[in-house]
Amino acid sequence: MSTRPLSSVLVANRGEIARRVFVTARAMGLRTVAVYADADAGAPFVADADVAVRLPGSAPAETYLRADLVVAAALRAGADCVHPGYGFLSENAAFARAVEDAGLVFVGPGPEAVEAMGSKLAAKELMSAAGVPVLPSVDATGLSGDTLEKAATEVGYPLLVKASFGGGGRGMRTVRDPAELAEAVEGAAREAASAFGNGTVFLERLVERPRHVEVQVFGDRSGTTVALFERECSIQRRHQKVVEEAPSPAVGPELRERLHAAAVAAARAIGYVGAGTVEFLLEGSGDFWFLEMNTRLQVEHPVTEAVTGLDLVRLQFDVAAGRPLPAAAVSPTLSGAAIEVRLYAEDPARGWLPQSGRLADFAIPADTEFRPTSGPGIRVDSGVTAGGEVGVHYDPMLAKVIAWAPDRASAALGLAGALARARLNGLPTNRDLLVRVLRSEAFLAGETDTAFLDRHGLDVLAAPLVDDAGRRRHAVVAALAGAALRRAAAPVLAGLPSGWRNNPTAPQTTAFDAGTVHYRLDRSGLTADVDGEPVPLTVLGTEIGGPGRVRLDVEADGLRGTYEVHVDGDRCHVDGPDGATTLVERPRFPEPTAAVAPGSLTATMPGAVTRVAVAEGEEVRAGQLVLVLEAMKMEHPVVAPADGVVTSLRAAVGLQVETGAVLAVVTGNTVTGNTESGGNRDAS
């Protein structure tokens, strides 16, 4: 078997996966090349690369999904191989073939293997022939009316509508009521076509509350195919993985052997070379069914690296260069437990809508950033940095945070602690949800399945870590910090404690969105309340830490702690031992603004209108679909907040809208501004 030394790699991707590949590439002595869209010109991954090539435009369809531009960029930069990362073109057989036709090495499986697994429908047929158990399914593309109903009846309810191409839950809908079938098929096909360029969808029997277990496989050009243990990715929201771990708490030696055998059989059935993942649905009985095979590196690959000590990206480069898998991969060992969480910019209070904007702070306690192999502690793989922008064009994942420990409970609690101590200011995130899941009794007991979040309730698991008393305490701390900053900038008596009064006088007032703080500091100490609710607090020390930053040493209820406050415009970000809060300070003299007409449906984030389901003058019912926005690689249905008539329709398909834009007005109701979020992201 001949080998081909590799010297320069272009990563046909962005964000944290591009940075992750660059780490190993540099360690192997490879020159690194990035491609970037205009929206990513200032992104960290571009600066990480030795050289970068611009792809004009911002939308994925005109940049990262343009195989011709990516291949041309590789040739222009002198790269001799292309690593696809995950998402975008990573599972596009035509792209893999174009890379090879250009004389470059594709760091992944051959086009034929990608093609064989590119269609989930065709893959299921191949797997069935190879003896791998599969669920019943029917191609729904082009079906409608009675024909579609008949196909659904054959599969059986409840069922899933799934995109045949792509992954990550995009183009997927759950259907329990036949009345919902047509809209689910139409929506899934539309989303799949937008995300993957192919609207083929199929119906598949829904397995209730299974575990989602996948096996990491690797093959080399000499015919060796191995399984590198399993990962469990059961905790999901809208079919999007949230928490991943290795090994699975539900898999013992006998079941692991059967899973490995099925995964290796699946890989060998298509002559697989490189890194791949065979995904299964696992029932409590120990029965499992083939779900899909991802012909690329997975988002959650770090947990496998942590428990095996193998650098999977290095193995990808070795196999692509023609080298055989090393002995450590052929006979892998399993050590300890690793857990990964996906940290997203999304707002739990607004239906989990993805968020865009500037990150005022982004700091997660970690041992070594981008450590590619195992070891105790915390690893952070991120595509963003403090002060950077999260745009509207791509997935809003901020980071993957990974913990390894000798046992599962230690890994979970260590990861929860790192997340709780992180400074994540500027955009809402799912941090509190992740911390509560990791600390929950059910998770620590290994009682996980795909219905975990539904069963335990997002209203409970996503509740803010800071309770009501803590929020009031944070409001007082924020008010004191703001006063300290103003006093420090005063031309006279800058050293006087902020809020100090030598004689009795009216208290100082600071109004936040969460309440109004009244406080007075005199010889007897601090007196404060929030909306009349007393907040007992003693300030032991105040330190200005830089522009807009204050550290306060505080004692409350006999407990002493340090609070970090970052005042960023009208926003006050407070990080303390009891959690984090962002408060918006209200102006003392607000400017009058134009009122939004009652019944207005407004855009909660920038996006593009992909569908308009009503006409002006049409009567609508509460909850009826009015239009669909696409933003940050997700579809967001906008529904009527109540019964009424569409008296104004200002949206059209293809229209780009900004946050707050009025899309339609429904009169005959009293609700203002309503959007219902939905949809799913890409990546594994």
From TrEMBL:
Domain of life, per lineage: Bacteria
Any coiled-coil regions, as ranges: none
Occurrences of domain Biotin carboxylation (ranges): 5-458
This protein's record includes keyword ATP-binding: yes
Record field: transmembrane: none
Keywords associated with the record: ATP-binding, Biotin, Ligase, Nucleotide-binding
Entries under SMART domains matching the protein: Biotin_carb_C
Domain Lipoyl-binding per the UniProt entry, residue ranges: 592-667
Domain ATP-grasp per the UniProt entry, residue ranges: 124-321
InterPro entries associated with the record: ATP-grasp, BC-like_N, Biotin_BS, Biotin_carboxylase_complex, Biotin_carboxylation_dom, Biotin_COase_C, Biotin_lipoyl, CPAse_ATP-bd
GO molecular function, one term: ATP binding
Cofactor: biotin
PANTHER family according to UniProt: BIOTIN CARBOXYLASE, CARBOXYLASE:PYRUVATE/ACETYL-COA/PROPIONYL-COA CARBOXYLASE
Protein name per its UniProtKB record: Propionyl-CoA carboxylase alpha chain
